[in-house]
Hints:
alpha+beta; UPF0145 protein GCM10009663_25940; single chain; UPF0145_YbjQ-like; UPF0145_dom_sf
Amino acid sequence: MGNIDEYGGGQRPDAEVLVVTTNDVPGHRVEHVIGEVFGLTVRSRHIGSQIGAGLKSLVGGELRGLTKTLVESRNQAMDRLIEQTKARGGNAVLMFRFDVTEAADVGTEVCAYGTAARIVPLG
């Protein structure tokens, strides 16, 4: 799963591409800005999880099936973002963000985006 952990958060130490939400990386300098990169996925829920989510929403509580689907979608979008960054010669994504929207009432669109760059350590 690329460089994110199984729960969809945190940077693994063996990551080939550093992904940060900041403009810069402490201890590094931006050598070259490559440009915008993104990873996109659209997922639909199966009928069983939709019925289960509808029933659960009546009584309250976490919708675990939907949570799992969103984590998987987020991981896939991030993996695609990282692959695009590597393909364009980058080793970092700056100003990383997620955007999540409903896609025509049939699923959820998850877009991971940011600015691909080449960074080098200072000194």
